[in-house]
Design goal:
The protein is mainly beta. Helix content is about 10%, strand content about 50%. The protein contains three helices and ten strands, in the order ββααββββββββα. It has helices spanning about 35-40, 50-55, 175-185; strands at about 15, 20, 55-60, 65, 70, 70-80, 85, 85-130, 135-160, 165. Strands 3, 6, 7, 8, 9 and 10 form a six-stranded mixed sheet that branches. The longest helix has 11 residues, at about 175-185. The N and C termini lie far apart (about 80 Å).
Length: about 190
């Protein structure tokens, strides 16, 4: 097989992005995988990396930064060079894996988080929500935990709840009742 660009040169391999044969002259030197120079630079000026053109995902980073982090970073899919999931890192981060002040994703880590697996400093919402502050999810752990299974350091409200002040199917502690009435403006059926 010969190089796609230089038809007389023998190909040393196939570009992982465009799947064309490439010779030594066409290999992009800065990449750890075999990628041609055209693919390594073609969509980068648009801010899409390779993703927009070749279907590996999507990436957007705002030009505005705070403390070296982009204000908004949105990404999805796989980086074709490293073949790893893209990670959104920004003040507002949205992606399969998201890290930021406000992180939204399949796995989210930050100050305020929403995700399947959510690890939040002040608030975590998700299937599994773990945080130091307010946590809501199927399985919730936090100072105030609300969920199917809730483990609260102060208050726990859920189907099965563990903590100092608990509301679950069987119990309704006075402190938890006052909290639910005051802050959530509701009382679960087990407290009536």
């Amino acid at each position: 097989m010969n190089c796609f660009t230089h038809g007389r040169n023998p190909a040393v391999g196939i570009c992982v992005v465009c799947q064309k044969g490439i010779c030594h002259e066409c290999v992009a030197r800065q990449t750890p995988r075999l990628v041609c120079r055209t693919c390594s630079t073609s969509a980068a000026p648009l801010g899409f990396g390779w993703s927009g053109r070749y279907g590996y995902g999507y990436e957007y980073k705002s030009s505005t930064t705070i403390g070296g982090w982009p204000l908004v970073h949105v990404c999805a899919g796989v980086d074709p060079v490293t073949m790893r999931l893209r990670v959104a890192r920004g003040i507002v981060a949205i992606g399969n894996l998201a890290i930021g002040a406000l992180a939204i994703g399949g796995m989210a880590c930050g100050v305020f988080t929403i995700g399947g697996a959510s690890f939040g400093l002040l608030m975590a919402i998700g299937g599994a929500a773990l945080g130091l502050g307010f946590s809501v999810g199927g399985f919730a752990v936090g100072s105030v935990a609300i969920g199917g299974a809730a483990v609260g350091f102060v208050y726990a409200i859920g189907g099965v709840a563990f903590g100092p002040a608990v509301i679950d199917r069987m119990r309704c502690d006075d402190a938890a009742r006052d909290f639910a009435r005051r802050w959530l403006n509701m009382l679960p059926p087990s407290c009536r």
